[in-house]
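ok so for the tutorial part 2 we go from a plain amino acid sequence to predicted structure tokens. step 1 is just haveing the sequence, like this:
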Amino acid sequence: MPTTPPTVRQVYALAAVLCQMCDAEFPKDREAASALIERFRRELGHPHPRLEDSPRPRRRRRDVSEKTERIRAFHRRLESGS
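step 2 — the prediction. this is what the tokens look like for a chain of 82 residues:
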């Protein structure tokens, strides 16, 4: 399956190798990981703003089935008393 994304284990392995290549300690928690990512972004001259400075993308509404829409409409009618 060439179109499947890497596994979590593969991503961790890549991160560990990259940290080793950069002589950086593998982060112990999310905060340390964010700081290390930001450091690497600055060192590489990344053109985009820091993650905390960029707007969060709006969550796309998932496509819902016709059955789900009918159930929601039913509940709205019940709540409105119609």
